[in-house]
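Notebook, student rotation project (T.W.).
Task set for the rotation: take a protein with a known small-molecule partner, predict the structure of the complex, and write up what can be learned from the model alone. Partner molecule chosen: magnesium ion. Sequence and SMILES entered below by T.W., checked by me.
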Amino acid sequence: MDQAEKLRKIVKEQNTPRHISRVITVTSGKGGVGKSSIAVNLAIALSRLGKRVVILDADFGLANIEVMLGIRPTYNLADLMFRGKNLSDIITPGPENIGFISGGSGIQELTNLSKDQIIYLIRKLVELDQTVDIVIIDTGAGIADSVLEFVAASSEILLVATPEPTSITDAYALLKTLNRKSDFSVDDTVIKIISNRVTPDEDGEEIYEKLSIVVSRFLKLKLEYLGHIPMDNSVSKAVMKQRPAICDYPNSSFSKIINSFARQLCDSEPDIVYGKKGIAQLFSNLLKSRIRK
Ligand SMILES: Nc1ncnc2c1ncn2[C@@H]1O[C@H](COP(=O)(O)OP(=O)(O)O)[C@@H](O)[C@H]1O
Ligand SMILES: [Mg+2]
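Predicted structure of the complex:
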């Protein structure tokens, strides 16, 4: 049995007939468009709807989710991978029952895993699949290869863009690169566009329309539109207080939209084929391309 087959077997054996988490990956072409703000607040909104939610911070740049939540994790994914820590050690409790996993150096180290370490990691992630309903992955901006690989392995992608022309062209560049990746399969992926920081004189849906036109002409992808978030001071005020906006400014337009996104997402549980479902499967997809033949 080759390595890829072995991984498939571990995921499958332990996955059926049990619970598999829904993985929602938040990404963007350009940095600073609101990915982490959306990931954190959406996690809390989904938790309020009764979902068990964990955020995985796969952005190894700034540890901004930790700052946003005002928490300091003791251990991260690398401690699970290399230092024998368990899932319960690396999931830090956040506000309103959400859990937080810091990728730490673990995301970069994924390239350096031995076969045994890969199998160990996948087994642990199968455990995570069993205990949570939704894993939200916050990625860095999609220029780095490591980010693109995460996005390509995901089944449900929230692509955040702002009305600035550079943000839209960078979002398109990400889609174009994704479309070209050999391990990306269009049919079992949904890509939902969120326009963020939209001012009253801007049209949020226009971002989606512009992207859709070029995407339908040149790429094989299909886009959906989740909606737009207005420019809202409560987001930056909340960051200053190290508190999620949805907790401290529940009536802000930002919080209301995030709540409605959470409801929309719950109403539209995507019917994704088994091959890309769950967090263990995602990592297994990610790692199988790294196994030397
Ligand atoms: N809807 C919004 N209105 C106003 N400011 C926002 C909004 N969304 C995000 N921001 C601000 O934009 C900055 C970048 O947000 P962040 O979530 O860190 O982006 P990313 O994770 O994409 O780098 C932060 O200072 C945040 O407060
Ligand atoms: Mg961020």
